[in-house]
Every structure is written in structure tokens, then in C-alpha cells.
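Hello Y.,

Per our agreement to keep a running log of every chain we model this quarter, I'm adding this entry. I've kept the format consistent with earlier entries: sequence first, then predicted structure.
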Amino acid sequence: MKLAVVQTNPVFGEVKSNIQEAIDLMDSVNADFYVLPELFNTGYNFINAEEVQKLAEPTGGITMRAMQEWATNKNCYVVYGFAEKNENIFNSSALVDSQGVIGIYRKVHLFDRENLFFSPGNLGFPVYETRFGKIGMMICFDWIFPESARSLMLKGAQLIAHPSNLVLPYCPDAMVTRCVENKIFAATADRVGNEERGGYKLKFIGMSEIVTPDGTVLCRLGSNESSISFAEVDLSFALSKKVNSFNDLLDNRRVEQYHR
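Predicted structure for the entry above:
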């Protein structure tokens, strides 16, 4: 399939124009599967809980409707990050196609001041079937916990869709390791730009990328510009976990030795 990562520069609180920026970028590349950044529709640097309440959406909100309409026109899949209004407010991502929402992931490992505004994810790390293969999601800071990607691999995921708003510099290279240690594809979609609000200034690093199960970086975007890139991938290459004739990442696990 043709897999695309979309790197946007949202303006805080400008939901409609942020959605349109993403759609304009997606319109420039004909792909089967698109991954957008974390909180791409709202921006990231919330000052207080009232802002989060105002900008959060239910699963079927304006963002989902826009993404479903676009996916219907293009016969494709889209993963995007948004603030989900449910029983609590979650930092979530959705996988949608022409039929609507296929699945939701709620960020398990909240980063820094996210802990003031969001509830930790309560759905674990689900995996969803698509016509191209099995898809799992994680969001941004989940990358630093090896258990995130490993949980998805153990459940059969062939691709990790990874919406992000990265401010630490380590993730792009670390995702190479995550892919190698799990023999899995990953598509990290980050944002660029700065947000200075309420005395807090954040600079986002960009560097969105697509990585293969052998650690090959098929594409990596720059640090400053909104952009889109894509690669042709065959998710069946993530089905085998063999390293050589003696070693298999699943068969060689010695769970009885893994304890604190």
C-alpha cells in the first residue's frame, strides 16, 4: 500500500483551518493510508482545563466527519489525533475510513503538562483489521516505553500509526529500534512550529518518518516545514519475526525470566 505521513503546523484553537491544512496536504498525494499528528486539529499547548473542554470533541465530532468524508472520496484510511470528549477527556487517535470510525486509541503515557488536562488511556493497545493488514496506534510519548510497541506486536499489529507532537529530540531514531526489536512498520506523523501560551513555550521537532521492520527509514521530513511524504510498503513483511534460522522474536521470548 501507499503510506503517507502528514506534517502540519496547526494554529492553536483554529480547528476548521487546521483540518483544512491537513486536507490540503493530503490532497497533494494519492495514498491508501494517511497518518496525521497528535491533536492536529486543536493545537497542543493548553493553558487550562476550560480550553480542553471547549476544544475536545466526541468521537463523531466535526473532525471525524471531515476525515470520513475525505476518506470516502479517496477510498482510503486516515489516522488522526484529537482531544476526545467521553466520560473523561482523553488524548486520543482515531482510525477512520469511508464507513466512519474503525477504532480509537487513548494515550496511555501522558507527557508533562498533559497530566493536568487529560485522563490516562483506558483501552490498552488495541489492534484493528484493515484491507492492507493489522494496524495499531500509539501517541507521541508512548514511544519511550518499549512495552507500547511490544504490546502491539504481540497482538499482531503489522503497522504502528504514531501521531505525535514531539518536543524531545530522541524519538525519530528511537523508532528505528522499536521497529527492529518488533519487526514492525511504523509511521510517525509529527507537527512543526512553536506554541507559546500561558508562559509555556514549546518547539516541535517535525522529522515525521516511515520505518520498516529492518530499521530502514523510507522517508524522513524536515524540522521546520509543513509537508507530506509517502512510501510504498507491504505489511506482510511484518508477519515473520525470524531474525535468522535460530532466532525468532516471538519464539525466543523467555517470559519466565522477565520480572522486577
